[in-house]
Amino acid sequence: MVVQRMELPEGWTLCDIAGVTDSVEKLDPRSEPDRLIAYIDISSIDNQSNNISEGKPFLISEAPSRARQIVKQGDVLFSLVRPYLRNIALVTPEFDGEVASTGFSVLRPSKAIDHKFLYYKVTSKEFVDLVSGEQYGVSYPAVKDKQVRAHPVALPPINEQRRIVDKIESLFAQLDHGEAALRNVQKLLVRYRQSVLKAAVTGQLTADWRADKTDHLEHGHVLLERILQTRRENLQGRGKYKEPVAPDTSNLPALPEGWVWASVDQLHTHLTSGSRAWKKYYGSGDGVFIMAQNVRPMRFDLSEKFLVDPPQDSPDAVRSEVRKDDVLITIVGANTGDVCRFPSDVGRHYVCQSVALLRLADAALSPFIETFLASKGAGRDQLEKFIYGAGRPHLSFEQLRTVVVPMPPLGEQTEIMQRVSGKLDEIKQIDIACQAELTRSAALRQSILKEAFAGKLVPQDPNDEPADELLARIKAARAAETQKTRKKATA
């Protein structure tokens, strides 16, 4: 590696990581086949906190073939696979003597470098970016252990290293405190958001408005009758009309004045999901196949777009094409029960098999129905009660049809959604501000590390032993130990 010369503070020296780390003992699986170990692989690392979250228990005889590196407290584990993901951790006392994957560069600090100084060095963005720039391979990008060890490190005297670590940890502790407060605010925002939604769909949010408008509102019963009539008219010509099933209201709570209970069955004209036979149409055209990951709670997310180009006149395309204000519900997989409203009528969009398309008899109902179905303590609880299948959760159309919905007068629905929109916008702005502060804090951490490794975080002490002298002593001691070992071997 070509090392760019840099001006070093007094007492510092430039070396590579290999020069300040010791060799790591390799595990012989034949030595103690029945010993129980905690195996540390890449998935054991929490790359947000840069800690080892857990080790996987194995008998040595049954451990994966990559379980070969015996680690010690103070070792630094640096993932060789996709290093940009920052799967880096310090080995803590509970993992002393356990076994790590060969997918790590295990950096064992010598007496020349403080273990936390080394840890902070390799977790810095500057170091991770340099290493990541050397990775090879496309589907499985990685670097080699020797590449990590070849990287230079500006090495201060050992006492200064400890002062630097103390200063870093003091400053990081302050940042930790602020970040914890910000994350607590974000958690409170999630709870507040749910309370807003629940207040909206139970009538609490508009109680004052309703008190002033009671005599001027169309009753929910009238609205429901009009919806049922629209439903009948819409479904004429599709065979014998089947009356929708009304909900059993005997055990339901009382509703605000002017509201009425209805079933999804009564409110919709179309409920379907995507075709299972469109594989030949995938990946071309300008149609968008709406997948489960596009349906987020009350948010249609097209950050991942999957193209599809079915014949536009095919029955499946006509049946599964989405219109503005259709309600989309994930009915298969990990996000089953997530609901959002389709926001646009631009372009061709089709639901996949994992997403239900719910078209209401009156599109004006769509914002309130979306809010109700997304609200915990209301529609979301009904959906979660219906979900079946432990390994792969599902919701059926029949279950969706039986969901019971409170129906306010249409004018009140409009007022509800205006108030909800205003409060959710406030929540979003506060969350954006919190996230901006967290981003600023993360950048500040990197600035602290940059200052630390440039010798600008703490003052130098002329009484400290220079780093090059310490390295020379360690090198001489190693050479003497090697010579002694050779003499014993030949004796």
Automatic annotation (TrEMBL):
Domain Type I restriction modification DNA specificity: residue ranges: 71-176, 323-421
Gene3D superfamilies registered for this protein in UniProt: DNA methylase specificity domains (3.90.220.20)
Keywords: DNA-binding, Restriction system
MF-aspect GO terms: DNA binding
Signal peptide start and end residues: none
SUPFAM superfamilies xrefs: DNA methylase specificity domain
GO process annotations (BP): DNA restriction-modification system
Family that this chain belongs to: Belongs to the type-I restriction system S methylase family.
PANTHER family: TYPE I RESTRICTION ENZYME ECOKI SPECIFICITY SUBUNIT, TYPE-1 RESTRICTION ENZYME ECOKI SPECIFICITY PROTEIN
Protein name: Type I restriction enzyme, S subunit
